[in-house]
Specification:
The chain is an alpha+beta fold. Helices cover 31% and strands 37% of the residues.
Amino acid sequence: MKKLLILAIILAAAATISAELSPSEAAFQKSPVSIRIERFPRPPYSGATYYIYERDGEVICTKLEVCNKYDQCESEYKKGKYKDEFDVETGDPYGKEDPVVIPASKLRKHVCLTKFKLIK
């Protein structure tokens, strides 16, 4: 029930924003962008977290964040689907989070989307 309410609010906000855009911009923004997370171990004492951005069931951007045991992190951004060879060899992630729709008002805060001009 809570997810339906959140989705309804997001869709209403998207409709309001789409009304202010030109037809071509509105078509580009109609499909919501969602983000899901996958985590992989990185020995010794570190981990890799993938933030996977999707639109219409396709991966449009991937953020890879690798952090050591002192929470010092490095991030890199790749357009489209990406997985480091090290994590491919590891196999399945040890942690996953389901996709969550990003509200239209928050899209510009995501570097992966703005860096590759995946939003207007």
